[in-house]
Amino acid sequence: MTATLYHHLQEMLADEQEVAVATIVDAKGSVPREVGAKMLIHPQGRHVGTVGGGCGEADVIRAGLDVIHDGIPRTVHVDLTEDISMDSLGVCGGVMDVFVERWGGASSPDKERSAD
Question: Against a cut of 0.90, is the pTM above it?
C-alpha cells in the first residue's frame, strides 16, 4: 500500500496538482491504524490510503480539502471512544491525532527542499 501511495503522490506532484497528505502522528488506546499511516486527499475529495475509515476519516478528508484550499496545516483529533449502541458498527475505543499538510503548489515540501 505504501508504494502505491507514494506512486500516486509522485504522479500528482509531477502533474503540478495540489494534494493533502494526512499522517497519523499520535495514537492512544485501540485505533484502526498505526502511527505513521498515511492517506492522500485529492482536491475532488477522493483519497488514496486510509487513516481508519468511518466518521473520523471523513473529518480528516474535510480537513484535507480545507488545507488544499488555504495551505494552513492542521491536526485533526479523532476520538473513537463513543458509547457503543445497537446502531453502531463498532467502536475502537482510542484516540488519534492526524496531521494534514498540503503538498504541491508554492508551499510544497519538495519545492522547499530543492530551493536549498
Answer: no
Confirm if 17 and 104 have CB atoms less than 8 A apart: yes
In this structure, are residues 44 and 88 in contact, taking their beta carbons and an 8 Å threshold?
no
Residue 36, classified by CB atoms within 10 Å of its CB into exposed (0-12), middle (13-18) or buried (19+), is exposed
CA distance 84 to 92: 10
What's at 33, amino acid-wise?
R
pLDDT digits (tens, 9 = 90+) for 77-115: 999 887 554 455 556 779 999 999 999 865 555 544 444
- Beta strand pairing status for 38-41 and 74-79? unpaired
Cβ-based neighbours of 79, under 8 Å, separated by 6 or more: 56, 95
The identity of residue 103, as a single letter, is W
Give the residue among 93, 114, 100, 104 at the shortest CA–CA distance from 67.
100
The C-alpha atoms of residue 87 and residue 107 are separated, in whole angstroms, by: 43
Measured CA to CA, the distance from residue 1 to residue 15 in angstroms comes to 21
